[in-house]
Amino acid sequence: MKGLLTRCVTLALSLTVVLAGCGSNQDSSTDAGGASGGSEQSGTSKVSMVYWPGPESDAMQKVVDAYNSGQGKTDGVNVEMVLLSRDGTYEKEAAMMSSKSDEVDMYFTASYIIGQHAPSLDALDGKLNTDGYLKSSVDSLRMNNETLAIPMDVSNHFLLYRQDLIDQLLSDSAWKSKYGEVSQKVLGQTLEPKDPKDWTWDDFIAAAAFFSQEYNPDSPTKYGTALQMKNLIFNVMIWDDFLWSSGGSWLDESGKPQLNSDAAKKAMGIYSTIYNGKMTSPNSTVAEYPETQAALQSGNAAFAVQWGAAYDELNDPARSPNIAGKIAVAPIPGEHKTHVHALGVGLNKYAKNKEAALKWMNYLTTKDAMQIYADGGGIPPIAEVLNGLGEKKPVLPLIAEHVDKYGYSTPIIAETQPIMLKLAEDLSGAWAGKDDIGKALEKAQTDVTETLSK
Amino acid sequence: MVYSEKAAKWVLSFPLLLFWVVMVVFPAGYAIYLSLHDVSMGQGMSSFSGFGNYLEILGDADFWHSIGFTLEFALITTVLELVFGFLLALLFNRSFPGKRPLLSMVLLPIMVAPSLMGIMFRLILNENNGVATYFLSLLHIQINLFDPDLVVPLMIVLDIMQWVPFTFLIIYSGLQGVDPGLFEAASVDGASYWRTVLQIILPVIAPIFFIAAFLRGIDAFRTFDVIYVLTNGGPGNVTKTASIYIYEAAFKSGQIGQAASASVIVAVFLLLLIPFFVKRLSK
Question: What is this structure's pTM?
Answer without folding.
Answer: 0.85
